[in-house]
Amino acid sequence: MITNIDDFEKGEEIGGGTFSVVFKGLLHGLPVAIKIARDEGRKSIHKELQIFDKVKHANIIPALGVHLGVDNMLFLALRNFNLTNYFIDYGNELKFPQLKQYCIQVADAMKYLHNKNILHCDLKIDNILVKYDKGDQIEISDFGCAIDLEHDHCIKFIGTQTHVAYELIKYRRNPAISITASKASDVWSFAVTAWQILQKSDQLPIDFIKSEDIIKNYEAGKKLPIPVTVISEDFWRYIFLPCFDLHPKARPTMEDLHKSLLRFREAD
Ligand SMILES: Nc1ncnc2c1ncn2[C@@H]1O[C@H](COP(=O)(O)OP(=O)(O)OP(=O)(O)O)[C@@H](O)[C@H]1O
Ligand SMILES: [Mg+2]
Fold this sequence. Notes:
Layout: E1 8-16, E2 20-27, E3 30-37, H1 42-52, E4 63-68, E5 72-77, E6 81-82, H2 83-90, H3 96-115, E7 118-119, E8 128-130, E9 138-140, E10 147-148, H4 166-171, H5 183-199, H6 211-219, H7 233-240, H8 254-267
Antiparallel strand pairs: 1-2, 2-3, 3-5, 4-5, 6-8, 7-10, 8-9
Helix pairs in contact: 3-5, 3-8
The chain binds adenosine-5'-triphosphate and magnesium ion.
Family: Belongs to the protein kinase superfamily.
Binding site for ATP: 35
Protein name: Protein kinase domain-containing protein
């Protein structure tokens, strides 16, 4: 839905990232989040729009409209928390079964995107919103880095350093080897995101933050430790460790992961 300047009102700032600032606001009198592109993010708002036009899923934040003018704006359903902030306020109350449900919901949304040949490319808990304050449902957001494999020509390195797949960090500065983002690179980021969910924190271990350290660790076989809320080691080992295979083709698909997560719930 294209909107005119009289259709909305901008309120207080509630968030922001590299490419945008997010405000509370009203659209046709109803509360919304307004994502306004910084100059360098104008292109990514167009990208987000293109993706939002194609997706509708219970675990993906719905877009409600767009305004393209002096500022480029995207109107989204308003939520009160991203998962990073929700863990800070309510982390103590959240136990493994709920956290596993979050992993299932993210996996379901990612499976849906991959079936549509869309890569998210910036999955992390800051980009996951909490749908209702009781916290039983979450939604993936921030499609500013997303890639539509059927239409985009440029599939270059992007995303957040801590979550980017091995092959993308390893070869990004080597012009002789052209490695592109893929469903398998999203799977790696999904596993890092699941680690944050099961750890109830956005803080990765100190030696899993810098690209050089990450490469060194994985080449030496050193992995992220089992997250604190995970009691059954097998849950982490069988489902998530294969996502960190250095060979993208050897990683499970989002469909495999969704299925394994559901199966584990049945076996609980
Ligand atoms: N619909 C929404 N309701 C409430 N808060 C939101 C909403 N969308 C985004 N935010 C807040 O604004 C922050 C930034 O939004 P978003 O991740 O979409 O922007 P970004 O500039 O692309 O971020 P980055 O590039 O750093 O990943 C989010 O982490 C979240 O805290
Ligand atoms: Mg973001």
